[in-house]
Amino acid sequence: MQMKVKTIFSSLILVLLISSLFMCLFAGSVKGQSEIHVATEEALKNAISNASDDTQTVIIFDNNIAITVKSAIFIPADKDITLRSNGNSKFSLVGASGANVLTVENRATLRLDGIIVTHVSGYNAHGLTVNSGGTLILSSGEIIGNSGSYGGVHVNGGSFTMTGGEISNNIATGDYYWGGGGVYMTGGTFAMSGGKISGNTAIHYNYGGGGIYMTGGSFTMSGGEISGNSATANGGGVYIGGGNFDMSGGTISNNKATDGGGIYLADGYVRLSGNSKISGNTASNSGGGVWVTLANLGRLSVSNGVEFSNNRATAAYNRDSSHNSIYNTYIGNGVVWTSPFTQGYNNYDISYVQGTPTTISTDSSGDSGGSSGGSNTRFTVTVEDAYGNPTGAGSYFAGTSVTLNAATKEGYTFSHWRVKAGGVYLSNSPYVIFTMPENNVEVVAMWSGVQYNIIYELNGGETDWRRAAEYPTTYTSSGDGSSVAIPEPIRKDAFPLSYEYKFLDWTVIYPDGSREHFQTYLSIPAGTMGDITLEANWASKGLMQNITDWATGIGLIVLVIIVGLFLNAIIFGNGGSSGSSTQQRRPYDEDYELRRQKEYFERLKAEQIRQAQLQREEQQRRWQEEQRQREYEQYRQQEEQYYQRQLLEQDPYEILEINKGASEMEVKDAWRELSKKWHPDTCQMKDQRATDMAKENFDKVQKAYEKIKQYKGWK
Fold first, then answer.
1. Read out DSSP for 241-307?
2. How far apart are alpha carbons 544 and 448 in whole angstroms?
3. Beta strand 251-253 with 277-279: parallel, antiparallel or unpaired?
C-alpha cells in the first residue's frame, strides 16, 4: 500500500513540475503589447474585450469609427482603457441614434486622450455615462454634438476628472425632468482642473444647467473654463440642485439664463475661493453671477480674492441692513464686484431684490445683459474641410437661410457635419440648409476614408494564434496616412519547443507595385488607395541551430525529471519516511544491475549509430548541393558564351529596335528606354530565370549601344 502511495505521489510531482515548465516556456513566448491600433467598430470592441484586467491598454484610432448597433460600447469591470487618436489627427467615435456612445462600468477606468465623442447631428442620445465605481478621465479631445435628456456626460455615481479637452455644443433637450447640456451629475465626484465646458444648451422650461446640472455628489473646480453656455430656465453655467460645489480657481463666464446666468443654487452648497472669476454672465431676471434665495444666503460663501465682473441682470439693488450680519459671515471684504458695486448683494453679481433699487449706467454699447443681436447685426459662419464652391462660409443676418456644401473629397465619403459652435441642427447630408441664429456658427465637414483589404502572403508560415485578433485585414485611406502594428507570424517544425525558421521582416506591396520592408509598424503613406499585400520573409536557422534547440528542450525535460526524482528520494528515502522501522528493503540483485548496464550501453550505442547516420546524411546532402552548384555554374558559362556569340552575330540596330539610318539622338533615346525596361532594379521577379533573362537583355542593350558608338565614332 505504501509503495502504491509513493508511486502516485511521485507521478503527481513530475506532472506538476513538467506542467510548470511548459507554462513558463509558453508565457515567456507571449509578447505583451500596450498599444492596439483600430479602424473599425468590430476591432474596437474586440480590443476592449481582450484587454488585460488591471493593466492599462492604449487603443489608438486610425480612422473615424461609427457605431452601427443601437447600444453603447461598455468599458467592463477591471479594465483600464485609453482611447487615443493616431499622430496629430483627431478621429471621432460616432454613436448610434438613441444610444449613448460609451458607458464606464463599476471598477472600470476610461481615459480620453485626443478623440472626439459625438453623434451625427440630429441624433437623440447623450455622450458618456460613468456608473457608480467607474472612472472617466478627460485630458484632451472633445465631447461634442450630443443631444438627449442630458447632453455630454452623465456622472451616475462614478468619478469624472477633467484636466483638459473640451465639452461643447451638447444639448439637454428637456424630454424629461433633466438638464445638463454639458454634464449631468446625479452623484459621485467631478474634479475639473483644466479644459473647457462651452456652448452647451439646456432647453427644458423648468430645469436648466446649460453647462452643468447636478442633484448630488461633489463638484470641485480648481481651473478651466465654463463659458458661453445657456439655459432656457435657470443656471446658464452651473445648476446646483443638491450636493456641494467648491470653486478655488478657473472662470465661469458669458453664460446666460433666466435666473442665475453663471450659477443657480437651488439646494446644496456653493463655496467660492482662491482666484475664481465669475464674469460676463447674464440673467434676464435675477442673479447675473449667482442666484440664491434669501432663505439660503448662508449656503453661498465667497472668500477674499474672488472676482466678479461685468455680470448683468434686469435690475440692481442695495443691500438691506437686515442682512448685514449674514453678509459679513459668508462674504469676504476683499472680493472684487462688478463695477460700480462695492458689495455683492446687488442682484447683478448675487441675486438680491430685498433692498432699495438702484440705477446704474450701461456701457457705450448699451449692453445690459440681454441678447446682442439685432436686425442690423451680421453673424459669421465658419466652414472647415469642405470643398464646395461656395462652401457657405461668410457673414449673414439672423433669420436668413444659409446653405452649406461639403461637395466631395477624393478617397473619402462624407460622414456628417460637426457643429463646433452656434448650436444649430444639421442633417446628415453634404448639402444642407439652416436658419442663421443670432450668434456666430462654426462647423466642420467630417469625412470617412474608404476601406481596402490587407492580404497576407505568409510563405509557409502562419499567423500567431495567440494574437489572431491583432492582425488587421483592412485599412482606411487617410489624408494623414496611418500606422498599423502587425504581429510577427510563426513557422514551426515538428518539435513544439523550437522554431525551424526565424522571421526576418515584412515586405509590403502597394497598389502601384512599389515595395517596402518593415519590422512591426506598417506606415501607410497618405493618399494610398487600393489593396496592399504583406509578404513574410524568413531565414532558416540551419541544421546545427535546430539540433541545439532540440537538445535544449530535451535537456530541460530531463532536468525536471531529475529534480522530481531528487524530491522523491527526499520525501520517501531512507531518512525521510515516516513509516515503520521494520519496513523490508529490497535485496541487492546483481543480475538486475548487469541487465540495466547492458541496456544502457545498448541505447548509447544505438544513439551513436543514429548520430553517425545523421552526419553521413548531412555530408551527402552538402555534396549533392555542391554538385548541383557546379553543374549550374557550368550551365551559366555555356549560356554566357552562347549569348556573346549571338550578340556578335546579331545586328546592334535590331537589338535597339531602330533603323540603321537613325540619328545619334534617336539611338541614345532607344538605348535609354530599353535600359530602363530591362534594368535589374526594376525587373526583380519571383522567377529567378525571368530575372536572369532581364539582366541578359540589359547587357545586350549596353553592348549594342557601345558597338554603334564605336562604329559611328560618337563619344
1. EEEEEEE-SSEEES-EESB-SSEEEEEEEEEE-TT-EEES-EESSS-SSEEE-GGGGGGEEE-TT-E
2. 53
3. parallel
Domain ranges of the chain: 126-313, 378-449, 456-541, 546-574, 596-649, 651-712
pLDDT per position as a tens digit, 584-600? 455 556 777 788 888 88
Q: Are 316 and 348 in contact (CB under 8 A)?
A: yes
Edge-to-edge strands, sheet with 474-476: 474-476, 451-457, 532-540, 501-509, 515-518
How far is 507 from 486, CA to CA, in rounded Å?
Answer: 12
Q: List, as one string, the DSSP characters of 652-670.
A: HHHHTT--TT--HHHHHHH
Q: Domain 651-712 adopts which CATH fold?
A: Helix Hairpins (1.10.287)
| Cα 33 from Cα 487, distance rounded (Å) | 10
Report how far apart, in Å, the C-alpha atoms of 176 and of each of 120, 206, 341, 622 are: 22, 10, 39, 84
Local structure of residue 237 (DSSP, 8 states): S
| 119 φ, ψ (degrees, to nearest 5) | -125, 155
Who contacts 643 (Cβ-Cβ below 8 Å, separation ≥6)? 696, 699, 700
Name the residue among 214, 349, 201 with its Cα closest to residue 276.
349
Q: Any alpha helices (H) in 382-475, and if so which ranges?
A: none
With beta carbons less than 8 A apart as the criterion, state whether 282 and 309 touch. Answer: no
Q: Dump pLDDT digits (tens) for 625-664.
A: 888 888 888 887 877 776 666 655 678 888 888 888 888 8
- Give the burial string for 428-456 (b: 16+ CB within 10 Å, else e): eebebebebbebebbbbbbbbbeebebeb
Cis check: omega of the bond before 76, within 30 degrees of 0: no
Residue in the block written with cell 473646480: 221
Task: Give the integer Cα–Cα distance in Å for 111 and 51.
Answer: 14
Contacts of 410 (CB under 8 A, 6+ apart): none
Per-10-residue mean pLDDT of the chain, 715 residues long, equals 53 57 45 72 90 89 87 91 87 86 94 90 78 95 88 94 94 74 95 95 83 95 95 94 96 94 96 96 95 94 96 93 94 93 94 86 42 60 88 86 85 82 78 86 84 84 76 73 76 53 82 82 75 83 60 73 75 49 53 82 89 90 88 80 66 86 88 86 70 84 87 80
**Helix, strand, coil tally for the chain in percent (to 5):** 30, 30, 40
- Three-state DSSP at 507 gives strand
